[in-house]
Amino acid sequence: MDNNNEADAAPRRRFRKRWILWGFVGLWSAVGLWNTVRPMPPGTDVRTAPVALDPASVQFLTDLTWNDPRGQSLREQRIFDEVLRIVDEAETFIVADFFLFNDLMGAADPPHRTLSRELADRLIARKAAQPGLTLLLVTDPINDVYGGAPSPLLEELRNAGVNVVTTDLRRLRDSNPAYSALWRLFGQWFGNAPGSGALPNPFDTEPEKISLRSWLALLNFKANHRKLIVADRADSQLVALVTSANPHDASSAHSNVALRFVGAPALDLVASELGIARFSGWNGHILAAAPETPPVDPAQAVQLSYLTEAAIRNHLLDAIDTTRNGDSIRIATFYLADRKIVTALLRAAKRNVAVQLILDPNRDAFGRQKDGVPNRPVANELVTQSGEQIQVRWYRTHGEQFHTKLALITHGDRLIASLGSANLTRRNIGNYNLEANIAVELDKQSPLAAEMQAYFTRLWTNEGPPGTEYTAAFGVYQDADFRRYWRYRFMEATGLSTF
Question: Taking the model in full, what pTM does it have?
């Protein structure tokens, strides 16, 4: 009798185990799927209507690092000088959002410039000079190593009266759903006591250890990747700057671009940032009034729109897909991997649109050597599949990165531009990371359009004294390795990557 009961129990146990297993797989799949399509939180996926501004109120800024013919490193830097000027002139509020804001993370050598200290000192000094100033700084939890190593710099800002808000990344969609579903089910509930860890810091060579929980949070591969600042001035105008540059010491020699503008579109940036701050737990207020926008001649106006997250991709696809023979597409960027952008560029080349790309070779990463993924496999695909109609040049980096994110597209006599924080990857422009770009449309013969195009031409043609080399020919980093190509495709599709 007992043998019969035991024989009957074995199938029941196997049945229960199968149902438990399938129940877990179903729950894991449901959590993963929901968090790839969940509604975007307030302040995200923004595309504002174009606003016409006087060209005098819009300024294109660049940081550039290159070697002269003798091998000496040269730098032109304007972006953070302008950021500091905006801080110094602020009257009643400053809203800033920067992904990397620290003085240690990733520093393999002494930095070119201590940007984090410069910006922190200016913010503290302006708050002291204007005690009624409301100062909101939104940033990413990477600066505290996801709670494992609190940032002394951010704590200093808090103590000075700056409202420092760490973005609640749980509210964002998951670009790495296979892992992030497990994190949401089992990992996010545990605390993270600073100083209790025994694992190396993935971003720093300092001896301070971090916890396993910080590493597990990192593997979600998501971020508030925005880089911008907005403030009001004594003349009641709003001034804003959107950039690809971080106030990060180890990034201070990177090449970057920015757009500074004065006027009503700055209010859209404030509204978006307040949405992020509030879903991240901040309950304060910013009193930002809409500035007057004086009338401007439509023929001379610069049309500005604010774009975030997937709206950046949609705008760029619209601009690329409406190009025709005689138009041009010129893109300079740190990462190019998004499949929708890649296929749109190939379609444009088939329509005899001139396509030129300046890419970072994905070689240098804060003292570490990378293997060129994703840019080299993508570049090889674009050049070969277009019959070499798509042209690629590589920026000559020497330890730093070509961190620019700029697209310039001509449509007849108009130029459409997009620049800001967004790399052209699924994570950056697919409603996963938080990103901020400015879209610009204007007459391609206007001074601002000419300046942006001259920047690209300077790099493409190595304009300067004989021997100057900003960029190198495609063949220098050409990579036809099919294993790297398919590794890039897998990483891009699954989100199991840092790009």
Answer: 0.95
